[in-house]
């Protein structure tokens, strides 16, 4: 190890210790809220969940560095109370994992029901607590803002970080008196855009009057910002008038790079298990977890491997680094995600390119195999498609992203190779029985799932 590497590793170690104990580089603000990473969890898909299901999923999330679940909850589900109880029971038993309720305001919530749910779980050892108060979030609901002072009074106080993305950063900034922070649901490129940047995140931080990060992470600002990150988006559910694909070829990598740049107070992965929108990072284990209609584009499309790179990016985020570096106790890893047909292989299904987009997804989706590698040193990743020639790509120390294009002439199984280990994924083909499936399948090497 040279002097430069020694200095870098020493600085990283100090930063990691600072991240763990909540230290900043500002003498007057030595104690701050520790950074946490959550995953958005659709409680409405758990009608037949058992205690063991909850424990298995919590352990899987904890293993990849996720700190807790944001339990998206609607008031109408008859299994709500039972499943919340099982979730908290499992999190308490596993330990080191937190939960909080994210009230879904696509539905109308009675004030008393919100109060009762917060009071029921606020003393659980698994309840996420910030500044001595139970953490609470929402999906939308700015029209409900005037009720939150009543909830605060009746619960003894909450730490409210809602998603009011419909208001935009400026609109959220006009309601700071109601909230303790804000969560942005904007985690995908806009319609007819291949990429997204962190501009909106910076606008949220300005609206929340958040100071810029220091060397050891974010200062102890009054309001907190929770940044959304998602691996993918595709939905085709006519019963809800939903049919669009957001460009996701490099999204999982790009967005984590932006998190390292922005260094928000919290991160929420969107989602753990929303199969209907193809944003899941945990595969369904029962048919009843998938909403009717989504099974045609979810079955056989594993997303578990998205989690393989999380330990490295989460560690870098919590340590205040601007680049992901491999965890020393973990081996090199590479993941690849791709659609299983070219975008022109079948009928486009009227799928729009992005929410509200005025072009077809078939015109915007790129026919590529997307690859992210995390390696301790410079290395080589090899991608082979069918009987074609292997394509070799050089990695740098840390994270590397690259793409391998395909078309109707390059078909067959996808093989991903790293350090002499090979994983073969499902084939790319042109046999669309109905219409193009814009969901992706994800593989990893080494395959430890």
Automatic annotation (TrEMBL):
InterPro entries: Glyco_hydro_71 (IPR005197), Xyl_isomerase-like_sf (IPR036237)
Family annotation (Gene3D superfamilies): Glycosidases
Regions crossing the membrane: none
Pfam families in the record: Glyco_hydro_71
Molecular function via GO: glucan endo-1,3-alpha-glucosidase activity
Official protein name in the record: WGS project CABT00000000 data, contig 2.10
